[in-house]
Amino acid sequence: MSANETPASHQPPAATRDSAFLRACRREPVPHTPVWFMRQAGRSLPEYRKVREGIGMLDSCMRPDLVTEITLQPVRRHGVDAAIYFSDIVVPLKAIGVDLDIKPGVGPVVEQPVRSRADLARLRDLTPEDVPYVTEAIGRLTSELGPTPLIGFAGAPFTLASYLVEGGPSRTYENAKAMMYGDPELWADLLDRLAGITAAFLKVQIEAGASAVQLFDSWAGALAPADYRRSVLPASAKVFEAVAGYGVPRIHFGVGTGELLGLMGEAGADVVGVDWRVPLDEAARRVGPGKALQGNLDPTVLFAPREAVEAKTREVLDSAAGLEGHVFNLGHGVMPATDPDALTRLVEYVHTRTAR
Ligand code: CP3
Fold this sequence. Notes:
Oligomer: single chain
Bound molecules: coproporphyrinogen III
Strand order of the largest sheet: 1-4-5-6-7-8-9
Distance between the termini: 39 Å
Strand content: 5-15%
CATH architecture: Alpha-Beta Barrel
Largest sheet: 7 strands, parallel
């Protein structure tokens, strides 16, 4: 089999392949604009908080029963067009032995930040045996989901590096950028190693049955285009290239990436995620032809009354009217205090308004 041939066993069943979500990703005509929400699993749902009671975030990611239940919850409740696998971007790092935890209200915290070549040497490759719970949970999910597609995901090399080098969340990324500017070789080797780990993690998810994947480069918007092109794009492109042969849609997302949209398209994804700062018609000009777009309602709009949500949603849909492929989403993840009913109403509104 040649590198670009899709292994037959990784084609989703026909009904999934024909879903509105996968059709939109492939820029084919759709019966309605598909909708899903980043961070739809967990966060705002009371049934999520209930099953998570007393169980740490990373522990819950390693329990196929919980992962399956939490992934299904928003599909049942909101009728979204795709499920996203319940996990976190730091799970593959934990799986290769990095000493880290996810602190509630803070985010990922790394015990010993990666600052030197000796630190880099601790990051080994990931194999499917490191994440058996992922394979098991996705196997259960694909049978429970029926035709609804499952999106697998991973953190992009830059966003993972930002946590590893800083040791935790940051607003400025001064340690990561100091390595990028001060020791470009170590930086390039770190991102390349992370690209290998990320690609391996996405392959596990696709081979287990995920029918699309999203690369979260949430914090790439902190970079100037020239730095992104030189010091980050090659590693993200390596991830996309590594999974190209499966033929599943590859989505690329970041926040504050208005100036990077063209480069993010160049990195090789099939779908580019857009935050709320750039209207979708303008984003399409920046990304260029041949890609679908995903986005881009400001997640804070959901705190406004229904009429305002609908008006802002119409703006997004109008701006997407000329696109070849549009997946409706928020411009970033669901905020924890969001009223779940507002999400359900939003799904209905987009479906009704775009029914063809
Ligand atoms: O989309 C989904 O619903 C799937 C689950 C998912 C989680 N994390 C679960 C989670 C996904 C896709 C992620 C990705 C993720 N994790 C990103 C990229 C997406 C983005 O928002 O930009 C990033 C940057 C992380 C790192 C991370 N993990 C942060 C910043 C936090 C929040 C810390 C907090 O409590 O405010 C986490 C924790 C996390 N990941 C939670 C969930 C449901 C909350 C933890 C909890 O419920 O105890």
